[in-house]
Structures are given as structure tokens and as C-alpha cells.
Specification:
This protein has 7 helices and 9 strands. By secondary structure, the chain is an alpha+beta fold. Helix 1 crosses helix 4. The N terminus is likely disordered.
Length: about 230
Amino acid sequence: MSEKYAFSPETLIKAYTLGVFPMAESADSPDIQFYAPDFRGLIPLAIDGPTRFHVPRRLRRTVRQTRLSVTIDRAFADVIAQCAEPHSNRASTWINQDIKALYIALHKLGFAHSVEVWDGETLVGGLYGVALRSAFFGESMFSRVTDASKIALVHLVARLRTGGFTLLDAQFHNDHLEQFGLFEVPREEFEEMLATALSQPADLALGQPSGPMIHDLLSALVSPQNT
């Protein structure tokens, strides 16, 4: 039996190409709205220049030394379910049932991806988003242990850099992401950056572990301008 959505996964892909993304007012809301903020939050993928990706020194040590393991696309449905759960710092989320179903459909189509952080066989953190050409649209993340979502983000950035991605969209300004070099651009500038990213191919290298990519990223960050 076919799934029924408020709109099709193909419509969602088209929305992303136009710089628009969906949100519900709450997890219980039956409706989905589309947004295109006047200013867009971006996480830089470059490690030099005026806007560059940054990993605080303590977090670099954590990423190198953690006993937690990291995978990609191993448990997409579980990640989005965890992202939709209320947490101590948020009473509700914008991920309703239709959004869950839509992104799971996008995952099955090969456009939506998750990064998972594990303590043994227990999922303790992660994030998910949408990849189109050399643009990655980050949607949500969660942590059940200290730094788990941050570890997932660093692994994502390492993979995006290795695969030739040029744009990592964080949608809005977020104090939590400032430590990574988050910056904002006006909508018109974002649309230009998006058009460029959509004109270029990229590869998430789904069959490859991110360990070597992390090694390369953290080694490149150990320089006077990145400490």
C-alpha cells in the first residue's frame, strides 16, 4: 500500500532547490509550512579565510579519543525519531508525523542521510539532512550523552569536505553552532551560493568509514589560525 503525504517527496526536493525548507509548528501539528528566512545560517566547510570551520580544542580531543563509534545511514528512521523527541532544553520540536514519513521516503530515494553516534549498540546521538549535488541541508540533531551531536557534526563536515561539498546549510542562527564558525548571509546571497552548489557534483562516499576523513580534517585544523 502506498504512503500518503501532505505533499510528495519530489515536491520537497524541489523546495530545497529553491532555498525553501519545511517545518511544522509542533510535533502534534497536522500542518507543514515552508520557510525561506531573510538570513540563512551556514556552517563553513573551508578551514581558512574569514569564514572557516572551527572545532574547539577540547572537542578535537574528544573526537580523537572517544570510545563512541560513528556510522552513516545505519539507522535513519531511529535518528529522526530521536530528533523529534522532546528534550530537557526543548519542550517540543517541529518534526511531526508527516515530516518523519517524508524524510524517511527521501532517505529511501537516496537524498536524505543520517550520521549516527553509538555507545556499543545504543544510539546516543546523531543528525540528519538532505544532500543535493554539492549542497547539504542540515535538519536536526540530538544527543543523549555529552558531545554526541557535536561528534556527529564534525564527522559530517569531514565527509562533506572529502566529498567535494561546497555548502552546509544550518537554516537559522543557532548559539549552539557558533563554536563551529556559523555565519549568516542574506537570502539573496544564499540563493546564489545554492545555485552554484547545485551546479556541482559531490559524493558522500557512503561505503567508506569517516575515520580517515576525521584524521585529515583534525590534522588540517592544527595550525596557528585554527587553534
